[in-house]
Amino acid sequence: VCHPSCKTCLGGGKENCTTCPPGKQCVGDCPDGYFESMSQQECVRCHDDCALCDGPDIDDCTLCQSDKNVRYSGECLSECPSQTYYDETSKECKDCPSSCLTCSGSEPTSCLTCAEGRQKDATGHCVWYSECSPSSYKDQNGKCQQCHKHCHGCNGPGKDHCLSCNSPHFLLHNTCVPQCPEGYYVKDQDERLCGRCHFSCKTCTGHHSVECVTCKPGFFKQGETCVETCSEGSGKKTKPCSQISGVVSHPLIKKIP
After folding, report:
1. Which of 153, 172, 176, 183 is in Cβ range 3.0-4.6 Å of 164 for a Cys bridge?
2. Which residues, other chains included, contact 10 with Cβ-Cβ below 8 Å and sequence gap of 6+?
3. H-type helices in 172-235, by residue range?
4. How many CA atoms lie within 13 A of 210 on its CB side?
């Protein structure tokens, strides 16, 4: 019996295909503009913005289609977004330290301007306003007031005025929470920040579509990704498609290692 990916073959392995199904061709390596879906042994097309990629989404680019664009967190943009800087070594935009509003590098002393509630000290670090203690803020009368008990830094008295959090809490939309909730992941353990999962993920380890752990209702886990519809051919002979165990399969190019 041939491997499910073969039309005709000389043996049962996927490497023994002699011809592929209609609309597909057998290749040794995925060409530029495609990435390898390990679960289905297919080459799947990258997003149009990507020259090279490791997934199907707009933020899965490893190289941009246009050399005029810059890459930030896998997405190709016309310029680096706010609170990021361009790293010449990796040729991509990277996040500034959380204490910076603008910066020239990743070090705490590389801030060009400071984030809200901070000012530069003699060493060039952006620190909380020295007139008030780290866990307090200056009110409209210029007096120091205590932050909410969960806030490490804040710009007001409420629990939704936090700028950073005391351990073991994490910052989510200016509020300190005991743990990052469903649909979010721990983006930065040191800075204690929550980041949003890809829209298809119920739980995840990062913001990319290929970092889902479980899927939202209406999506199914297939290979590395959560998909709305299981691809043709999923079942006993191929990678299971279920809400427990993703990548969207497109009938493009059949992969032979």
Report:
1. 153
2. 16, 18
3. none
4. 19
Average per-residue pLDDT for the chain:
84
Mean local confidence (pLDDT), 160-179? 95
- How much of the chain is in helix, strand and coil states, percent to nearest 5? 5, 40, 60
Q: Specify which residues 172 forms β-bridges with.
A: 175
CB atoms within 10 A of CB 87: 14
**Could you give the CA distance from residue 35 to residue 248 in angstroms, rounded to a whole number?**
12
Q: What is the pLDDT of residues 51-102, one digit of tens each?
A: 999 999 999 999 999 999 999 999 999 999 999 999 998 889 999 999 999 9
CB 37 within 8 Å of CB 51: no
What is the signed CA dihedral for 137, 142, 144, 149, rounded to 10 degrees? -40
- Percent of the chain beyond pLDDT 70? 85
Distance separating alpha carbons of residues 93 and 164, to the nearest angstrom: 23
Strands 61-64 and 50-53, by their bridges, are antiparallel
| pLDDT > 50? residue 237 | no
Q: In what order do the strands lie in the sheet with 26-27?
A: 26-27, 253-255, 42-45, 34-37
Q: Which two tokens stand for residue 21?
A: 């199904």
Q: How far apart are CA 147 and CA 227, in angstroms?
A: 43
Residue recorded with tokens 């399969």: 249
Which residues, 6+ apart, have CB-to-CB distance to 218 below 8 Å? Answer: 228
